[in-house]
Specification:
The structure is a homodimer. Chain A is α/β, with parallel strands linked by helices. Chain A is 39% helix and 17% strand. Chain A binds a DNA duplex through helix 2 and helix 4. Chains A, B: InterPro entries: HTH_LacI (IPR000843), LacI/GalR-like_sensor (IPR046335), Lambda_DNA-bd_dom_sf (IPR010982), Peripla_BP_I (IPR028082).
Chain lengths: 348, 348
DNA sequence: CGTCACTGCTAATACGTATTAGCACGCCGG
DNA sequence: CCGGCGTGCTAATACGTATTAGCAGTGACG
């Protein structure tokens, strides 16, 4: 492999066309301001040479001079393409890619970020954030200190998912979990449920907090509204607990857990929703085989991705008046797992 | 949003540490050659200032000066994150990301490339290829002219999947379809099959050509070895055709088609592999529901992605002696759809 | 005391583009 | 013939980093 032949530059074009490098740049950028004029024949000559040589501007040099790149960074706190085939990031990326394509931006995945304590770090030696004009942050839990630093540095970014303040408000495009969960609770109350249990994932992410907040706000009207954490592996003991408490409906944050619960119930001869209603608080992020349509809501992941790019573009070009924060509504899914309490009593 | 405060540069560090910008650069790059020496105390002073200010080198400027970016471009001829979870690219991207992370490179997805005639184009005005040190090309069919141009420009790239010459040999990491198909044909012949049919996808991609070549090479020993194209929608007429020809085994390129064929056979009271053997020439690229384990082979997509990055890295740093071309073996899958011909005759 | 080698640093320049101040020229009006 | 103005372009510079030639200072050695 021979040393890369030096690429064609504006200087080369200039020499061939008998003009200055500046003129080439002016022609390329179609400048026609009052104080910049190029004779049509000169312009044509330059354009002809450009076409002949197949010249293409070096985006790196362009960025250094112009301060903009048309590159949008994407930082994921976990690998962007996990091996589990159905993955958490995919719908977001889909939306991000779609909108990036629309606005003519390339996407830079920060795969070079080193992993410390099982999590990628944005900031490290030889930090490369500035390669992009701005950055989209993806991940369930985002490090507060890193957000602080981003804010301090004035680096343009948008988080996907609502974030608490971190040395100032954090720009985000999130999903309105609180409202969605509140609606589900109200639906359950409407159907006559009085003893509720919320089964969280036991993590401290804002997304979890918002769901819980929505639950607590609406569940005040219930006779009993408990709250505990649960995983799929716990299914058996959790089910014991639900029965002991005479809860008639459970709001389950994690999809795998709700599937495991239903299966555990079936094994004991209990039917969903006849004997127990199960609501899912978000669609699956890992592939869990089930043929049951769970009642719950859908997270507008794709749309979140799209809007994140849109918002970021405005942060970058400075047209965002203040810190943009958007919450998108979650669509309720009418499944088959919400019934009325005491349905079982009717037919013993 | 206030105007971005000017970022900290080496000049700032230099001023604060009372040295020159060059010294800062030398310290940063840990230069300790014979002809470059920095006193330990000076080095420490500079490093201290760097730590205090949180300075991070501008990767754009670095690239302009150093000619390398540690950015690997990824060009996909279709959107990288397709919506019908039909994700052809995913396993490749997974391998690419994994290896990129390992070698400390970021990944640039060329989403800005415009779509003309339903296909993205690498070359267009304001072509941004040079942002990356090199590029990985993904897509079943890759435009020959664009490969020509890449070769001519001396741009470092690697195609995923074997490619025919295009104004010179094309660097690639592909799958050895020819050998895999040949093995399957030999297996079928061993089991006593004598009348074979190959069902292709009717596209001109190299991957298709290689499968067909492997088939033709090994099928010479058969009594009848036909070749035609078929899609899932054709299943019924294709089945008629197979029966009329008394073919006992079909080699099916497209996974959806093989699934449709089996279903069509079942509808007619025929069993696979008792009455007809069906071999799949590659794992699914679209999710097709089936509970049958097809005999065939698996394409090492993830490994292809990994090795593509590895090879590209060597092309970029010039350590690839000649044009690298690798074919990875496909793992044979022992499924339940290859039987012996005339199995049915035994029990009418 | 001149020469030489060695140390530790800096000045200068390159990378390729974008921008801006301003030059040279021709033309017109007075 | 001079001032003024519009036209069409160029020279110079900035962007932030990497590299290299070479300078000043010091000590050793003949």
């Amino acid at each position: 492999m021979p040393a890369t032949p030096r690429r064609v530059t504006q200087r080369d074009i200039a020499r061939l066309a008998g003009v200055s490098q500046a003129t080439v740049s002016l022609v390329l950028n179609n400048r026609a301001d009052a104080d910049v004029r190029i004779a049509p024949e000169t312009r044509d000559r330059v354009l002809r040479v450009i076409a002949e040589t197949g010249y293409a501007a070096d985006p790196v040099a362009r960025r250094l001079a112009a301060r903009f790149n048309r590159i949008i960074g994407v930082f994921t706190y976990e690998p962007a393409f996990p091996s589990g085939s159905r993955d958490f990031f995919h719908p977001f990326l889909l939306g991000i890619e779609e909108y990036a394509e629309r606005v003519g931006c390339d996407l830079l995945l920060f795969t070079s970020a080193p992993v410390v304590d099982g999590r990628r770090r944005i900031f490290h030696q030889d930090n490369r954030l500035r390669l992009a004009d701005g950055c989209i942050l993806l991940g369930q839990e985002i490090d507060g200190e890193e957000l602080h630093r981003l804010n301090r540095d004035g680096y343009p970014y948008v988080a996907v998912g609502r974030r608490d303040d971190a040395g100032g408000p954090v720009p985000y495009v999130g999903a309105d979990y609180a409202t969605a969960v509140r609606r589900l609770v109200e639906m359950a109350l409407d159907r006559g449920h009085r003893r509720l249990t919320y089964l969280g994932m036991g993590i401290t992410a804002e997304s979890s907090e918002d769901r819980r907040r929505g639950y607590l706000a609406a569940a005040a009207a219930a006779e009993s509204a408990r709250h505990r954490s649960a995983t799929a592996a716990d299914a058996e003991t959790v089910l014991d607990d639900l029965l002991a408490d005479r809860s008639t409906v459970a709001f389950v944050e994690d999809f795998a857990t709700v599937v495991a619960l239903e299966r555990a119930a079936r094994r004991r001869g209990l039917a969903v929703p006849r004997d127990l209603s199960l609501l899912s608080l978000g669609d699956p992020t890992v592939p869990v085989p089930t043929d049951l349509a769970f009642t719950g809501f859908r997270i507008p992941r794709e749309e979140m991705g799209r809007q994140a790019v849109e918002v970021l573009a405005r942060v970058i070009d400075g047209s965002a008046s203040d810190v943009p924060q958007r919450l998108l509504p979650c669509e309720l899914v009418e499944g088959d797992t919400l019934g009325t309490p005491g349905q079982a009593a009717g037919r013993p």
